[in-house]
């Protein structure tokens, strides 16, 4: 019954993005944290609408996708142009409408397909919560929680609704809400704010505010009025292009019509068709669609590889990454840990002290299993003397130790540098000896004073060293070798001893693993800035330092990807250009990341990078084809307006050229494999590739029109000759862009040429292709021969301009850096 009601509400929410559940009055209660709510109380809250459904659906609904694809600015332009052509009876020139309709349908189908695949994955891997109901623990989806539910929160869990601690003690990080990274200890009666996450400890908490009433939901509703998140460079560039074209076509269209109808004394029908042809040529109708379809297809492909995308832009960003920051545990190594050995120090006296394993066993069993280190310690030290701890301090990634106070003494377990502090140099040699074998070394010691919360007072006497290790992932060396080949620099950032991390990095085949540093020695921003450029391995890193490392790398001009699986990685993940989390890690890390590796297999990262490169490079290549037509139409429209001539092409002819030199080949090129590294800026790359061909088109067609008028060639013949000239240049630029040629590219090129010839001969009336006079044929042959050298020399000229521009820009940057250093 509960699942059925939740399903009904989810369906209503999908159908209406502004859905807010109707809340009915209920009897509130404070259940016993051992028992939780009973079935009838849960049912009452479900029926009353007091559930934890999110205020925002995770993705657009099918209705929204259809609406957004149909009701676009350019579709409105095309509808108006089509209506004008119908009014003047130019039905033959409506050939562009089927292409527009087909483009829209393809966009809808691909986006809905991607949505369905991602929604299924999101639902399957949605955040879960451990709840106490009817005296039993259950794991359910967070959106199925109800008000007054007793939820068990542990380290790594993100708080899914505002709650009050009923039992236990936890350390909470509220930085995602407040911006402050300090850990706050929460005791019984304290409030847990939704959106924050548990750093350490365990507690039972009662949900006080759920769904739209929770703190994080109120923030989400306020954020609705703000703009969407930052787009990727590619989508941002396309947005700029579309916006500029959308503004320019209106005045240009009016100018061309007024000039043709009023100044050149052309008929109303001829003036309308000429204006429509120019406007259609300037509109990049398929470019934005192509980018959307390519990204949607990539999302589906990644989903099949068990990679969940929270953010589409991460596909492009990851393809541009040149620095990859990884954690040791969970990325280089398996996300499991085992105790490899125990070694007593000279301070342990077995005659006067309890057995060492029993002593550590008492300590371990007093702690909650809130991290893999404590799980390993508890699994190894199972024997206990039965002593009960009076007070405990759970492990914190910030302070790197945990403590327990028993009746006769207090003990601490943690990282040697943080536990021994000033006494560390006295034991450094023997600790480093074990760390050099690749072990993570923990110190178990006796405290002189009882720890006061996070304040470790007095001297700690080390009693034993515990050696732990994570097995290295089998695929790690091959994966890191790939990144080295691709010019991606790897930085290993870990909270463990730098010597240990360096040894593990060497075994994983990471280049520069010998260059390591203890992050505890980096105290200033300048030291951190220099260190991230110099070292590969960083040990004893605190969560706040991870953020500083990411920021320092970004400020140095790098595109940074960050992998992580623990709560201590969340802040750095948020700041990275691209964030990747392991599904086996903490909820907080998975929710903060743009990509989630659902099988926690880092070896799939090369295929994710290749997918990003395929999308960006292929769209970049296809976009240059579209831009040739757009730039040519724009420049020819200006040429027509300046020299007082009627635009020489008809809409059906523009549609013919667009279909076989741009649309069809662009679609196949966009879905091809492409492993090339991404260089430069998207719009600059596209513009420079398209410019020579666009200028060649304008010069050839413009000269043809001028010479045709000079020699008295019929306007219809000129129109046909101009169409064929555009086809020749179009196939030339398609050939250049497709290089190096392979079987698929050769087949696409030949099929497009054959299809265009078929339409020009068999369907010639539909596309306004007519026979040409002898004079026109002679002009056509001359200008056809001229197009190849013109295109070649213009390409060389543009390349030289780019070279000089890059050189001047580089010199300016070097001069600025030299001035700052001086």
UniProtKB/TrEMBL annotation:
<dbReference type="InterPro" id="IPR001757">
    <property type="entry name" value="P_typ_ATPase"/>
</dbReference>
<dbReference type="GO" id="GO:0016020">
    <property type="term" value="C:membrane"/>
</dbReference>
<feature type="transmembrane region" description="Helical">
    <location>
        <begin position="70"/>
        <end position="90"/>
    </location>
</feature>
<feature type="transmembrane region" description="Helical">
    <location>
        <begin position="241"/>
        <end position="262"/>
    </location>
</feature>
<feature type="transmembrane region" description="Helical">
    <location>
        <begin position="769"/>
        <end position="791"/>
    </location>
</feature>
<dbReference type="InterPro" id="IPR023214">
    <property type="entry name" value="HAD_sf"/>
</dbReference>
<keyword id="KW-0472">Membrane</keyword>
<feature type="transmembrane region" description="Helical">
    <location>
        <begin position="683"/>
        <end position="706"/>
    </location>
</feature>
<feature type="domain" description="P-type ATPase A">
    <location>
        <begin position="124"/>
        <end position="220"/>
    </location>
</feature>
<feature type="transmembrane region" description="Helical">
    <location>
        <begin position="274"/>
        <end position="303"/>
    </location>
</feature>
<feature type="transmembrane region" description="Helical">
    <location>
        <begin position="744"/>
        <end position="763"/>
    </location>
</feature>
<dbReference type="InterPro" id="IPR023298">
    <property type="entry name" value="ATPase_P-typ_TM_dom_sf"/>
</dbReference>
<protein>
    <submittedName>
        <fullName>HAD family hydrolase</fullName>
    </submittedName>
</protein>
<feature type="transmembrane region" description="Helical">
    <location>
        <begin position="96"/>
        <end position="114"/>
    </location>
</feature>
<keyword id="KW-0378">Hydrolase</keyword>
<keyword id="KW-0812">Transmembrane</keyword>
<feature type="transmembrane region" description="Helical">
    <location>
        <begin position="623"/>
        <end position="647"/>
    </location>
</feature>
<feature type="transmembrane region" description="Helical">
    <location>
        <begin position="718"/>
        <end position="737"/>
    </location>
</feature>
<dbReference type="InterPro" id="IPR059000">
    <property type="entry name" value="ATPase_P-type_domA"/>
</dbReference>
<dbReference type="InterPro" id="IPR023299">
    <property type="entry name" value="ATPase_P-typ_cyto_dom_N"/>
</dbReference>
<keyword id="KW-1278">Translocase</keyword>
<dbReference type="Pfam" id="PF00702">
    <property type="entry name" value="Hydrolase"/>
</dbReference>
<dbReference type="InterPro" id="IPR036412">
    <property type="entry name" value="HAD-like_sf"/>
</dbReference>
<dbReference type="Pfam" id="PF00122">
    <property type="entry name" value="E1-E2_ATPase"/>
</dbReference>
<dbReference type="InterPro" id="IPR044492">
    <property type="entry name" value="P_typ_ATPase_HD_dom"/>
</dbReference>
<feature type="transmembrane region" description="Helical">
    <location>
        <begin position="653"/>
        <end position="671"/>
    </location>
</feature>
<dbReference type="GO" id="GO:0016887">
    <property type="term" value="F:ATP hydrolysis activity"/>
</dbReference>
<keyword id="KW-1133">Transmembrane helix</keyword>
<dbReference type="InterPro" id="IPR018303">
    <property type="entry name" value="ATPase_P-typ_P_site"/>
</dbReference>
<dbReference type="GO" id="GO:0005524">
    <property type="term" value="F:ATP binding"/>
</dbReference>
<dbReference type="InterPro" id="IPR008250">
    <property type="entry name" value="ATPase_P-typ_transduc_dom_A_sf"/>
</dbReference>
